[in-house]
Design a protein that fits this description.
This protein is α/β, with parallel strands linked by helices and 330 residues long. The chain is 45% helix and 15% strand. α7 runs parallel beside α8. Its cofactor is Zn(2+). GO terms for molecular function: hydrolase activity. Belongs to the metallo-dependent hydrolases superfamily. Adenosine and AMP deaminases family. Adenosine deaminase subfamily.
Length: 330
Amino acid sequence: MNFATLPKIELHCHLDGSLRPETIIDIAKKEGISLPSFEINEIQKELIAPLDCESLDEYLKKFAIPNLVMQSKENLRRITFELFEDAARENVKYMEVRFAPSLHKEKGLDIEEIIQSVLDGMKDAEEQYDIKGNLILSCMRTMSVNSAFEVVEKGKPFLGKGVVAIDLCASEDEGFCGEFVEPVRLAREYGYRVTIHAGETGIGGNVLEAVELLGAERIGHGVFIKDCVEAYNIVKEKQVVLEMCPTSNVQTKAVNTFSEHPIYDFHKDGIKVTVNTDNRTVSDTTMVNECTIVFKEFNMSNEDYKQIYNNSIDASFADLETKEKLKKYI
C-alpha cells in the first residue's frame, strides 16, 4: 500500500505539538523571543522527544518552546494554517485538531480571540487545499476546574462553526475524571462532543471512568484497557473509539516497542481503533509514517486499512455531508 497517495483521516493531533521548527525560529526572531538556539538542527533537538523518552511527563516538557510563539492572533492563525497545509500535502482529507485555549493567554488574548484565530487558520487552509477540519477544545487537567468551565462557556458560541468537542489532557493521574464531571456535563448539555485522554500511562481504570462519569465517546490513547477488564469490556460493548498514536505511545513508554502495541489485537477483537500522529513535531512523525509503522509491524491488509479509515469517518465529529464525502475517497 502506498500510504502517501491513500486518503487519510486524523482525529488526534495537538496544535502545540505540531509546529514547524522553521516557524518557531522565524517568529522568535521577529518578536525577540529567547530560544535555546536559532539553528534548525539544534531547535529540532529541543522539540522532538526521543524514542527512549522515560515517561509522559518527560514527553510533555517538549511543549514549552512552541507555546512561547503561540501568544498572538497572527501566530495562532499562521501555525494552524501550516498544520492543515502539512496534513493536506500528505493526503489527509479530514483532521480534528485539538488545543488548550488556556495556554495562549500569556500576552493578553482572551479565550474567544484564541479560538477565533485558530478557526481562521483552519478556514484559510480549507480554502486552499482539499482538506476539511474541525477543532477540539482541550482543558488542562493540571489547571483548575474553573478553567475548564471557562473554556466550555467561551467556546459555546463557536459550536457548529468549526468547534465540535471538548477534551481533557496533560499529565494523567488516577481518578482525574471525578474532578471534571460538572464542566464536562455542562459541555454535553451545550452540544459539545466528548473525547478524553485516558489510559495513556498505565491506568486503565481512567478509561472506565471517562466513559461512565464523563460520557466519553472516544478515548485518546486507551492503551491500558489491556490491563483493566472492566475498561476493556465497556469500550468494546459501547463501541467507544480509541484514538491510537503508536510513535507517541513508544515515546511515553505506554509501550516499550512498536511490536508490543495492542492496536492490532484490539482491532482483531472488534474494538474500533484509529491511527493518529498525536504530535507531528514532538513525535517527529506524519500520518504516512504512522500508517506505515502499524501496517508493516502487524502485516495488516487493504481491508484492515479500509476498516480503520471507515472507523475514523464514523467516529469523527464531522457533519453528515462531510462524512459522505469522505466515504467516496476510499
